[in-house]
Design a protein that fits this description.
The complex is a heterodimer of chains A (about 425) and B (about 325).
Chain A: H1 2-15, E1 29-35, H2 42-55, E2 59-65, H3 68-80, E3 87-91, H4 92-100, H5 109-115, H6 124-128, E4 131-132, E5 135-136, E6 138-151, H7 152-158, H8 167-177, E7 179-180, E8 196-201, H9 207-219, H10 236-250, H11 261-269, E9 273-279, H12 283-288, E10 293-296, E11 308-316, H13 326-339, H14 342-348, H15 358-361, E12 381-382, H16 390-405, H17 411-432
Parallel strand pairs in A: 1-2, 1-3, 8-9, 11-12
Antiparallel strand pairs in A: 3-11, 4-5, 6-9, 6-10, 6-11, 7-8
Helix pairs in contact in A: 9-10, 9-16, 16-17
Chain B: H1 6-20, H2 24-51, H3 68-72, H4 79-114, H5 120-128, H6 135-145, H7 152-160, H8 176-200, H9 204-212, H10 217-228, H11 230-245, H12 249-254, H13 266-276, H14 280-312
Classes of the chains: A alpha/beta (about 425), B mainly alpha (about 325).
Chain lengths: ~425, ~325
């Protein structure tokens, strides 16, 4: 009686392509899973969970979707009272503070190995987003990134034949794209940068806009924080990188001053600007508008390396009370491995995420899709992570960008003021971690 | 007669003694008192405890630090003091500008729409309807209207009047315009409705008597309408001031508190300190300081109300 049954279930596993994934062989357990995929991504996640449950008879995952902010507020009290869910998804901007505050438990190399989770499978910087002080705390499941959209029609009209990848190419292409209302090109005598008809690049005044400055600083070999995790986005490399961006507005006149993301988005859709750096999440919108556009990695403005900002979501195991069922932890690791395996990650990209591993990025499903234009450099995407005081660093950084971009302060003065404010706030935050 | 039947007197006497014990009113108050204790007294007390400790739910130790976080609010070398009092100043500025507008404009609209003009019901609905929108919808709408480049306001300035566009959202001072105009549009209907109701309670005979004495529109308003609207004006004033002090969503959505924190409201900064910076003790101390300022303000208002009540009688 048991024999044919086992054969049937084995057959079912083979059909679903998940044979051999069954690493957990313990008694039947039920796992609670908390995640913030509450939008269009929710049905995709629910489909994956249903698939997992049907292929793993001894693990039942009960998922709960709720807005991210609610989770950030609830997680500390859930952990403190010993009622934490078995698996929680935490985003890149929150993860380090939860790790530093002890809400998340580290994943040992032995555990990862037993569960079949191979770090090398993922993009390196992406996996490291959830690392802290030499330990790993999460496995990436979802990823978004800052990219550069380009308008093929306007580029062609302006005589730009190649998508720029270096600083010199970028500046030259931006100048070619820029004309004022009287038809004069950027750089020509009598060019009026206050009255642009078309322009090269979209820079703008919010946190998304400031991620362009983040990319430029990383590309120049700078960073937001130093070894001691104090703010240091005012190093000479950082000032040089941000100065180049501000010069695009103030000196070269190839970007608009005082602009907003909405205004630049509208201008790009209307074919008035060649390059629109922003989140890859706008891809769908431009595809639906049937725009003739492409997606490229942010050109290398800095001198050291390719880099762009990325956001991500990581599967984590919260700290549990003493005496927590070890089988549950093993089952949770099994769930993490299954969910972040290539087949599932490919399905998950339907929800708007970028692939989290090269194997998925090379899938033929993406051939000819605009977003595939950045896939060769997904390994150069860096989150603003690794320091437990995210708000204290990013708030002043975004504000410094706004002041430099709008010309309220010189680049150096704006970044200096931001670092000084940030470090004063970190000083107070540090005491909470003593 | 009844005295000879003491047995019958037993139950009534017992009931009477229960009533006399004075417990009944407290029993009626008990459900509310329980809710009040659980949802007001306990959280406030706990919040005060948090503000006196270096508190984190996940930390192993939560040392007592006394008034450190309150002292920080008066030490202007700390960002906490600078940003907190800056946000208090912004909130006060918003209140001082928006409250007179919210009272004057709603009264004006009520006076206009009280008359039997054509389409009165339609206009009443038009002014009342924005109030049903959520703050995020209202905020996005006014952010778009005043956008530096694609906003309707700038389009009118440039295309009709040939003026230069103004970067409303990123200029200190100007950024208040979309916030105040948006708030006015959003909340005016409620005050207007209160005024309309109050206008309906003024006896027409007073106006008729005044007309016989030869009064024109202004004296009628000055000596009849305005004094008789006194109580509702006071009510509108108090509720509008309290609502203005709770400024949060409008600035968050329209300007995100910028540029340079010049439109950041007190509650917005307290939220940032708590949930973006994870400094719960510091945020609690700020909340109590904010509460103290509000308390002083409310006491002043009550004194004014008491004085008005005496004058009224």
């Amino acid at each position: 009686m048991a024999h044919p049954l086992r054969r049937t279930s084995l057959l079912a596993l083979l059909v679903l392509g998940t044979a051999g994934a069954q690493g957990y062989t313990g008694p039947k357990v039920q796992l609670s899973f908390l995640h913030g995929f509450t939008g269009a991504d929710r049905p995709v996640m629910e489909r994956l969970i249903a698939q997992f449950n049907s292929t793993h008879p001894n693990i039942q995952v009960r998922a709960q979707a709720q807005p991210w902010g609610t989770t950030w507020q609830q997680l500390p009290s859930l952990v403190a009272s010993g009622r934490a869910p078995d698996v929680v998804v935490i985003n890149e901007d929150q993860i380090t503070q939860f790790i530093a505050r002890g809400a998340v438990s580290p994943l040992t190399d032995a555990e990862l190995k037993t569960a079949g989770i191979n770090k090398a499978r993922f993009y390196g910087p992406l996996f490291k987003t959830a690392d802290y002080e030499g330990k790993s705390y999460g496995v990436p499941i979802s990823s978004v990134a800052y990219v550069m959209f380009y308008n093929k029609d306007l580029m062609q009209k302006s005589g730009v034949t190649k998508v720029p990848t270096t600083r010199a190419e970028f500046l030259k292409a931006a100048q070619q794209c820029t004309t004022d209302k009287s038809g004069k090109k950027a750089g020509q005598a009598g060019f009026d940068k206050g009255n642009l008809n078309t322009w090269g690049v979209s820079l703008y005044n919010n946190w998304v806009g400031s991620r362009m400055a983040y990319a430029a600083i990383l590309q120049n070999g700078g960073s937001l924080v130093d070894k001691n995790l104090n703010a240091n986005f005012n190093t000479p490399q950082a000032v040089e990188a941000v100065q180049f961006l501000v010069d695009l507005v103030q000196k070269h006149g190839v970007a608009r001053p005082n602009s907003t993301e909405e205004a630049e988005l509208a201008a790009f859709s209307q074919g008035k600007v060649c390059f629109f750096p922003s989140g890859q999440w706008y891809t769908d919108r431009f595809e639906q508008q049937k725009m003739n556009f492409g997606v490229a990695f942010v050109p290398r403005i800095g001198s050291k390396q390719d880099a762009a900002w990325g956001g991500s979501s990581h599967l984590t195991l919260p700290k549990q009370r003493a005496g927590y069922d070890a089988n549950k932890r093993r089952a949770a690791l099994e769930f993490m491995n299954w969910m972040t395996s290539p087949a599932q990650n490919l399905t998950w990209t339907e929800a708007g995420s970028l692939p989290v591993m090269p194997t998925v990025a090379s899938n033929q499903k993406f051939e000819g899709r605009p977003i595939a234009g950045v896939f060769s450099k997904l390994g150069s995407i860096y989150a603003t992570s690794g320091f437990p005081w995210g708000g204290q660093v990013l708030g002043p950084f975004d504000n410094a960008w706004a002041n430099a971009y709008s010309g309220k302060q010189s680049v150096k003065a704006a970044l200096d003021a931001g670092v000084s404010e940030s470090n004063k706030q970190i000083q107070q935050a540090r005491k909470s971690f003593q | 007669m009844s005295l000879s039947l003491p047995r019958e007197n037993v139950p009534p006497r017992r009931r009477r003694s229960f009533e006399n014990s004075g417990l009944t009113p407290y029993l009626y108050l008990l459900p509310f008192a329980l809710l009040f204790l659980v949802f007001v007294v306990y959280p406030v007390g706990y919040g005060f405890y948090v503000s006196l400790h270096r508190w984190d739910l996940l930390a192993e130790t939560r040392p007592f630090v006394g008034l450190e976080y309150y002292r920080n609010l008066f030490d202007f070398s700390t960002p906490q003091a600078q940003f907190f009092w800056n946000s208090m100043k912004n909130t006060a500025l918003f209140t001082v500008i928006s409250v007179p507008l919210l009272i004057a404009v709603s009264l004006g609209l009520a006076l206009l729409l009280y008359r039997p003009i054509f389409g009165r019901a339609f206009f009443r609905a038009v002014f009342f309807l924005p109030g049903v929108l959520t703050v995020s919808v209202m905020g996005i709408l006014w952010r778009w209207m005043f956008d530096n480049q694609i906003g309707l306001v700038n389009a009118i300035r440039t295309d009709i009047f040939g003026m230069q566009p103004l970067p409303f959202l990123s200029t200190q001072g100007l950024a208040w315009i979309p916030i105040i105009v948006g708030t006015l549009w959003w909340t005016i209907g409620f005050n207007m409705t209160l005024y309309l109701a109050a206008l309906g309670n003024i006896s027409q005979s007073l106006y008729e008597a005044a007309e016989i004495d030869g009064a024109t529109a202004w004296p009628k308003f000055r000596f009849i309408t305005w004094p008789l609207l006194g109580p509702v004006t006071l009510f509108v004033f108090v509720t509008t001031v309290l609502a203005s002090f709770q400024l949060f969503g409008q600035t968050l959505v329209i300007t995100a508190g910028g540029p340079n924190r010049t439109t950041q409201s007190a509650i917005q900064y307290i939220t940032e300190e708590a949930f973006s910076n994870n400094q719960f003790s510091s945020a609690s101390a700020m909340a109590f300081m904010f509460g103290l300022v509000m308390l002083i303000f409310t006491i002043l208002q009550f004194r004014i109300m008491a004085r008005d009540a005496r004058e009224g009688s």
